[in-house]
Amino acid sequence: MVNNKDNCFRFRVSVVSLPPDRFDFSDLATPSRTEALGGEPLSSTAEGSVEAMQPRRGPTRSVLAALAAPGVGSFFRRRVLSWSLLLLGFVIPLAAIAVAIIRRQNITSLVLDTTILLSVQIIALLFVATRVIAVVEVIRSRTEGSPRRLASWVASVGVIVLALPAMWSVARSQDLVDAIDQVFVTSGSDDPLSMNQGEDGFETILLLGGDEGPSRSGLRTDSMILVTIHEESGRMAMISIPRNLSQLKFPPGSAMAQEFPNGFTQLTNAVYTYVISRPEIAASYTQGNLQPEVVALASGLSYSMNLLIDDYVLINMQGFADIVDALGGVTMTLAKEIPLPKALPGSKTPNARSIGPGVVTMDGTTAIAFARTRKADSDYNRMGRQREILAALTAQASGTDLLSKFPRLTEIISRTVRTSLSTNEFGGLVDRVRRGATIKESVGLVPPLVDTGNPNYADVAMIIDALQDALRDNIDFPDA
């Protein structure tokens, strides 16, 4: 009896002392609880152990971590891959966002830089690709039998949700690159638009508003404004040039000077149309990709007024109306009621017979009518309204507006605006205005200051010199 008990005791001890990996339930007559319930058989863990009692964790949490910061879920398995994914898919995009926030005051310059736009596209593609690689690695690294269905569904939905805005940014940035190629034309050199000597320390840009549109043949530059900027202080002034300014003179030896030795016989707003309709004259004003008719007009203004003109911006009226609409309108405070003309042919909406007095928010159609009307006062007062609406629109356009409405603005600008400014110059000018730079002075070359029918251009040059001196010395210009 003693021997039997001892043998039995030794048998039990030997069974208990077997290592866990020696258990084999396949030969037992009674199936395991898991198999009896229709589940998968236990693979290598003893039934009833602590590990077997715990529910199996799938890779869902790791997938979510990989979507948020690719590489985190694989850090202890593949160090090199993990660091690479984390750098390309998380650190670099985060750094790009930080740079955009820090330099938000120069946001226009950033989004007009084609190198930065290409970088945005690359970063967006890496943002998606790294997350795809990360979630695939996480799911494939799980042990056999680990539940993957939910994780795969989460991974698919998460990648799609993150990919949509990334692909949208790629498409929009490429649209902007294409628009930049169309809008920003170049002469092929850094020379000013016109070579006449002017005041040192100033940059002067010629803004032209054309009346091209439905039911109108050709283009006349009814709106001509010189924006002169004191480069050191950033102070700006606008000089309105009347469309009916006469006897514009051109540099000796130029094609237009030979054609009109005593000055242009038509109104100044007809120079553009005259040159574009005569290919032999236009050919002599060719400068790279610049519009020769604008170069001819700038050369005449520069020579007549002894003013160096660096660049130009040309926009047609309907394009300006579309830009106003895209930015949500423009708000101004009017001192009196302003009667309005009929809307331009092709306008999207009719405009009222009059607006004001008081605070008025204008859509594009009304803004163009406000800038064009001569019913309220005179052709010369109209130029003052054009300067006012331009200043109000640029001051009210916020960086958020520019970013959120870029797709629409890009489409409008690409078909209605041309400029010899570089993207850096244009972006710097817009950002300067948005940061609060205001038009310090504004003057129109109109009676009684200037006799537009028989102008003395030496006096005009003196007026402009005095205006620039006022900007440099930060004093009021008496004729503004």
Brief description of this entry?
The protein is α+β, with helices and mostly antiparallel strands and 480 residues long. 49% of the residues lie in helices and 11% in strands. Helix 5 packs antiparallel against helix 7, helix 13 runs antiparallel to helix 17 and helix 14 packs antiparallel against helix 15.
Verbal overview:
The protein is α+β, with helices and mostly antiparallel strands and 480 residues long. The protein folds into three domains: 2-53, no CATH class; 60-183; 202-473, LCP protein (Aminopeptidase). It is 49% helix and 11% strand. It has a six-stranded mixed beta sheet with strand order 9-4-1-2-3-10, with helices on both faces. Strands 5-8 form a two-stranded antiparallel ribbon. A two-stranded antiparallel sheet has the order 6-7. Strand 2 (221-230) and strand 3 form a beta hairpin. Helix 5 (79-102) runs antiparallel to helix 7, helix 7 packs antiparallel against helix 8 and helix 8 (149-183) packs parallel to helix 17 (406-416). The radius of gyration is 36 Å and the shape is elongated. The protein starts with a helix and ends in a 7-residue tail after the last helix.
DSSP helix fraction: 40-55%
CATH architecture of the largest domain: 3-Layer(aba) Sandwich
Largest sheet: 6 strands, mixed
CATH topology (fold) name of the largest domain:
Aminopeptidase
Low-confidence stretches: 8-56
> What's the helix-strand series?
HHHHHHHHEEEHHHHEHEEEEHHHHEHEH
In what range is the share of β-strand residues? Answer: 5-15%
| Mean model confidence by pLDDT | 79
